[in-house]
Amino acid sequence: MSQVKHIVRFVLDNRIVEIDFKNATNGLKPTTTVLNYLRSLSDHKGVKEGCAEGDCGACTVVLGEVVNGKMQYKAVTSCLLFLPMIHGKQLITVENLACQKNGKQILHPVQQAIVDCYGTQCGYCTPGVVMSMFALYKNHSNPTRETIADALTGNLCRCTGYQSIINAAEIACKNTEKDHFAELEPQIIELLNEINSDKKWLEIQTTVCHYFQPLTLNQALKIRLKYPEAIVINGATDTALRQTKKHEPLSLILDLSRITQLSCFSDNPDYLQLNSGISIEKLKTISSVYLPSLYQMLNVFGSLQIRNMATLGGNICSASPIGDILPVLIAYKAEVIVCNLQQIRILKIEEFIKGYRQTDIKKDEILVGVIIPKSTEGLIVKSYKISKRKNLDISTVSACFSLNLDTNHVSEIILAFGGVAAFTKRAVKTEKFLTGKNWDRTIVEQAMSILYKEFQPIDDARANADTRNIMARNLLLKFFSETNNEQSK
Questions:
Q1: CB atoms within 10 A of CB 201
Q2: Is the predicted pLDDT of residue 260 greater than 50, yes or no?
Q3: Residue 205 neighbours by CB distance under 10 Å
């Protein structure tokens, strides 16, 4: 392996900050979150902890990084972000937004808009709201109401002042003038390039944690072979909860977030290959062109802050029974690519998911990517999510269906569900009943009776078992109604 280092470096307050975990005297460890690090500083306490699970947005910060020679800005929840994950990036907090001119403090346009629109009440959530608005300001000029709402979905205002906040975002983001961040970008790019010119990968070992952050897949596989018990992360939005909510010590971590080859995708004649490190937000952009049913599901997937951090591979390997992406991948007949140092395996997604949060990945393997066949002509694919809230909520039941018709006969149908079993499953009995029959309401209603009895879901806080079975049954009717309407146009 190439040389390693143990010091994390990033830009904060327009200067390079170094954290040497081996000599840290302030209790910092590799799994210290960016939120807790900032709260330990005397001059960066604007960031707040609300939920410690990425839902409320009070801890939102913005990360800047160099992409193709230009700065790119992303809002993230700092409560789920481990310190090594910001290596080589710029960390921007609410304290950085205002600037000094001629001895006076000048508020950033997003801050001034919040003031002018009376967008703050108790103030606890305001720093996080402002940081989400700042990322919106840097990425969109004159955004639509839909874009604004999406950017702010991950910020829950305890005083329910949403309309004034949206008004502030509309006003601030019409401003096309350069802010002081734009003026400082050449300097920041130079600092970040200085950090990232060092091609050593990170290995941080303390008395409580051993943390690896390789730069290549080959390095990662060697570490995986030597340390098979290491927790593999990329965005860590799920793993971090084990620490923040369950207070579980995370002593051995393999962080793939700096392996650039895992964040790519390729458009091939017969299939798409989506690599495992692609963020959910990037996946949303890709799917808007290639996979409309996946895009439909990702439109109601978490918040922008979470989508900027979470990855496709992490979502698949968590094997959550209520995961929103897995039913879509099953309906699209996706395959996963896993590898170790000796071989590559390609498995159907249904074979890869083995049970409740269980997959077929071996202890020396890493999930590399997903292969999705390009849809054949006439294939109908639709996805659905039922939850108590439209946005930023866990599914009660999720589903994705694909249908091939031959002169109104069902030649093939896939009915994939989440939230009705210990893991994402197909309604095999219902599929078998429908195959070869007419695609009409009478047949579908008969199939609904079969579907109602096919699963044995559990009762929990979101719904009881009977309700879940009714939801699953009714989604089939919804699918029929939508496809029937489209055929009759």
A1: 22
A2: yes
A3: 14
Amino acid of residue 81:
L
User: b/e for 66-102, b at 16 or more Cβ within 10 A?
Assistant: beeeebebbbbbbbbbbbbbbbbbbbbbbbbbeeeee
Both 295 and 401 in one domain: the answer is yes
Contact residues for 89 (Cβ-Cβ < 8 A; gap 6+): 10, 11, 63, 64, 65, 192
User: Which of 185, 231, 194 lies closest to 211 in space, CA to CA?
Assistant: 231
Pick from 287, 366, 365, 288: nearest CA to 329: 287
- Domain count of the chain? 3
- The number of C-alpha atoms within 13 Å of 200 and in the hemisphere containing its C-beta is 13
Looking at 178, 204, 235, the residue that finishes a domain is: 178
| Burial of 392 (C-beta count, 10 Å sphere; 0-12/13-18/19+) | buried
Q: Tell me the CATH number at 237.
A: 3.10.20.30
Query: What CA–CA distance (Å, rounded) separates 322 from 398?
Result: 7
3-state SS assignment for residue 353: strand
Q: Which of 206, 205, 223 is nearest to 214 (CA)?
A: 223
Nearest-5° angle of CA 303, CA 477, CA 416? Answer: 55
Q: Per-residue pLDDT tens for 423-481?
A: 999 999 999 999 999 999 999 999 999 999 999 999 999 999 999 999 999 999 999 99
Query: For residue 385, what are its two tokens?
Result: 């999510």
**What is the residue type of 322?**
I
One domain for residues 74 and 132: no
